[in-house]
């Protein structure tokens, strides 16, 4: 196991243990939920139970997604972006990753513009994005990440 892989797994494991203990990851952290939104009457939204949320700094998006299909990187297609996104690449670019546990996550970032992606959720593959959304994130607060037939959307709740 390479050093990058070990560091990512250790970081994700620490986040999982901290979340399981009911503790905040840090004083300045974003807490959030991830759910598949149903647009069919009679069906409830479903919390996502696998994968992770990645926050790629806005100024590092071109570098991190250099191998992604250019047509998928257009603003109108980002919500459905399907490409590989290893956690080590996000971390190396100064971003953050947070494992999704029972529909919840904790993400530590500095305030700024990010491309927030849902990765490895709902059968998309362990490091494959389900979609992304460009958003200005505060250093702390609450996020609601949703997707379904609609693209990935990130709402900052204040």
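Q: What amino acid sequence fits the structure above?
A:
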């Amino acid at each position: 196991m390479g050093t990058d892989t070990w560091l990512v797994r250790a970081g994700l494991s620490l986040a999982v243990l901290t979340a399981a203990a009911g503790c905040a990851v840090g004083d300045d952290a974003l807490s959030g939920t991830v759910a598949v939104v149903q647009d069919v009457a009679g069906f409830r939204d479903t919390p996502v139970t696998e994968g992770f949320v990645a926050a790629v700094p806005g100024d590092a998006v071109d570098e991190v997604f250099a191998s992604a299909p250019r047509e998928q990187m257009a603003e109108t297609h980002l919500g459905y972006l399907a490409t590989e996104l290893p956690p080590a690449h996000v971390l190396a670019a100064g971003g953050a990753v947070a494992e999704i546990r029972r529909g919840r996550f904790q993400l530590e970032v500095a305030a700024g513009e990010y491309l927030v992606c849902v990765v490895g959720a709902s059968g998309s593959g362990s490091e494959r994005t389900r979609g992304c959304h460009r958003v200005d994130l505060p250093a702390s607060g609450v996020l609601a990440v949703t997707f379904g037939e609609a693209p990935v959307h990130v709402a900052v709740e204040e």
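Q: And what stands out in the fold?
A: Residues 3-157 form one domain.
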